[in-house]
Amino acid sequence: MTPDVSVLTAVRNGEPYLAEAIDSVIAQNVTLEHIVVDDGSIDNTAGVVERYGDRIRYHRQPPLGAAAALNAALSRATAPYVAFLDADDIMTSGRLTRQSAVLNSNPDCAMTFGAFREFLSGVALQGRWSVRAEAQTGYITGAAMMRREVLQKIAGFNEALTLGWFVDLVLRAREAGAQEIITQDLVLLRRVHGANTTITQNDRRGDYFAVARAALARRRSG
What we know:
By secondary structure, the chain is α/β, with parallel strands linked by helices. Helix content is 33%, strand content 27%.
């Protein structure tokens, strides 16, 4: 039976949090497949996944980056809708049902984005980063559901980017004619634990400028 939704998770060294993420997917009330791509973990990530048996479709690859891992997961997806979940985050109850309903009710819509709320997990953060405890909307991977055919049309994620690859994907989807719906529905609890990529890869924020420059260049050439 073809699943209704393919959930894609890229993970590297996700042992501390991955089980909680997987449990939040298993608890969803739609027919789904959860594809977990291990991007070169050196901890017991594989052991965590193994406990779930055939409820997880697991693939391991060398450490190529999150964008490459999600492309590997996308290449294995079979459902018409694709949702994303980082290995340290948690889906809210019924999230996939509600987002599927948005796409089902709006056949011209290619992607929908819900709200997310952050929570602090076991660390005291220093510096400029602050936890957004109120529900927020924005273009983050874990709050999105998209039609798989659109992702395939634009050839997935840009693997040259360490940061900004999801924003780049959304911009290219829009340029390809994809329409979107943003809702206030809380779909994701985003864990902040001090080792998040947006914190540890702060020196790669130039990737966002590269995304903006590439989008501007495409606009001018088009």
